[in-house]
Design brief:
Blueprint (H helix, E strand, L loop, with lengths): L1 H22 L27 E9 L5 E9 L6 E8 L4 E3 L5 H11 L5 E3 L3 H9 L3 E6 L15 H15 L4 E10 L1 H10 L6 E7 L5 H6 L7 H16 L45 E2 L5 E2 L3 H6 L8 H5 L8 E4 L2 E4 L5 H11 L3 E6 L9 H6 L5 E6 L10 H7 L5 H17 L12 E5 L3 E5 L8 E7 L5 E2 L6 E6 L36 E4 L7 E5 L2 E8 L5 E9 L5 E10 L43 E6 L3 E5 L4 E7 L25 E6 L6 E6 L2
Parallel strand pairs: 3-6, 3-7, 7-8, 8-13, 13-14, 14-15
Antiparallel strand pairs: 1-2, 2-6, 4-5, 9-10, 11-12, 15-16, 17-18, 17-29, 19-28, 20-27, 21-26, 22-25, 22-28, 22-29, 23-24, 23-27
Helix pairs in contact: 1-2, 5-10
Length: 688
Amino acid sequence: MRYLKFIGIILLLIIVGLAIFIIYTPGKKLKFVPGPEFAYKGLENVKNVNYVKHREYIPLKDGIKIAITYLIPKDVTNKKPTILIYTPYTSSIIVPEMSLFRQIASKYYIGKWGPDYEKISLKKLNTLSSNGYVVALADMRGTGSSTGFSGTLDPLYISDAKEILDWIAHQPWSNSKIGMMGQSYMGWSQFAAASTQSPYLKCIAPEMIFYNLYEEAIRPGGIYAQKWNTEYSEGTLELNNRNLWNTDADINSYPSEPVIDEDGDGETYDDIPIMNDNDRTAITANRKYADGNIRKKSEYIALTKEHEKNIWPKDISKKYRYLDDTDVYFSRNVTYSNSSVDILIQKIKETKIPVLITGGFFDGFSRGARSFSNLNITNPTYLFMAPRFHIPANIAGEYYTLFNYKYSYEDQFLSTQLQFFDTYLKDIDNGFESKKHIKIYTAFEGWKYYDAWPPTEVKSIQFNFGTSNSLTNDIQKDSTYTYDVDFTHSSAYNSNKTNPQLMIKYNDSVMVRTKQDKKCIIFETEILTNSLTITGHPIINLEISSNQPNADVYVYLSDVDEDGNAYYVSEGKLRAGWHKLYNNDESVNNLYDVKPELPWHSYKKENYNPTPFKKDSILNLKFALKPHAWKFRKGHRIRVSIAGADNENYEFNPTNCPDNKIENCKPTILNIYTGNTYKSYIELPIIN
């Protein structure tokens, strides 16, 4: 029996050895499929694991220590440009208790052994490294393995960024030219860093980030996005910054990699305590470690324990009721809007640094494309937009099939980023500047190229609400439609109940509104005899009254196919108390002329009316929907559906549902007026 056991062990070791021999392929060239439109020489000689990792602390002037990981290309002796990712989500992580078999699987699937990982696509990291870039990832104060504590979008992150840039610029491996990249919060951090006007920051490439914090992240249309703000706070930031190991959230979290090798064995993965998966108890001292010992003192815990003091997104979002609200962060007065991208842009305009903005038409922050419109006059600015969600960082699986998408979006995006960095950090004449600055993927058509956003080729066409719930170019006789608000209506699509605003959820399915629209009032065109393509922001104009003093209005634009399937295209919403329109330059305190010219509703406390519907009064509600580039094909219909609630995703109107409980909501009626006297319509940005 012992002999058989011995033979089994030998065979197992041979299998493992062969697996390691086959999998371990440093220097192996990676393959890319960007297609001819995005072919680039920088993708031709990308090698696997072509870098050397370093990790240390950056000391700030106020005593805070910023954890930074930097990866230097192998066999490089001359100084190189740096790409910085400045993150609150932990720059480097450890996967606890990772078995050899899991490490082999990791090597096979993503090309890295573990248990330590950097929070960046390995393909992207290898591409940048093989093209001679140092890649650096820094944890914001109060996050990852950095020390201290902080608040959401803390103004201190901005001043910290300048010190981090200074530190990188003066390292022996740096040529003092720095670019930045990253999605979402890491997109915001680029605008924050650029607003410091550091002479070392030469270009930024923010992805999937809002233009206006209040309107896109907190209260779209003045309505609190409760599910997104709560789940994002609890399921992402809190777990990451408390260094917990969690796999039951939509996004897994793992403890940050320690910076200090406390036991001097040359490894840091064993300098975090042994923990249980999904244990949300804060890490404390007197825990066992991988060597089986209990440590009474832990530098790792001592350095990161103050993270528990952080002010989380859910803590501020509920309080952030008006655009001009202020708060106190640890005795510091903070005006939320001052950390919004639209405000930061003014200082960036003065630097004239190049900016590559990437967005997704199915992203909750798709309106972030407005950053292009407001930087393009002063800065070399580029826009890259496709029909993708916040997560995954790709075209979702079913949409690949629906749109007959060609080639790899990931490789097309990577090619675009690399060309941008090569142009502005290496002064390579690759033709990037001379090409059209806007690349837009139009659903069912493919990539289109423009000089302006929205494109100057767009012509606004009005589709009026007509008789028999029609959408028509003609103005028909006066009609009134009555809709009893169904408070159970919810924009929860597919099995994981996701939608564009729930940006921590993985989206892999097509959003179909057929069931949801049964709880709405709908208006449709006749069957299209010719295809029709929109590119830009649809605008809704409603003449409306209600039996309640206030109400919320949700509008959805859909593409209905021959079988009656209603494919989600865009949406917008507005609380009636914000119905008045104001000059959108006021959204940035008149710092500059805001583009494009879209309906804007102030959202400032002094301009809110809690009871806008007086007896028999008819209000005009005019607001923009999220932008899209979509081809409505011949044989389909264009549909507009209107609801009065989005259950669970957004708060109910507090006037009608004081405790935000569906069972206590007052019966609410919306009356929509159409015809010659009162015109209700949707304005579509047609490009053909």
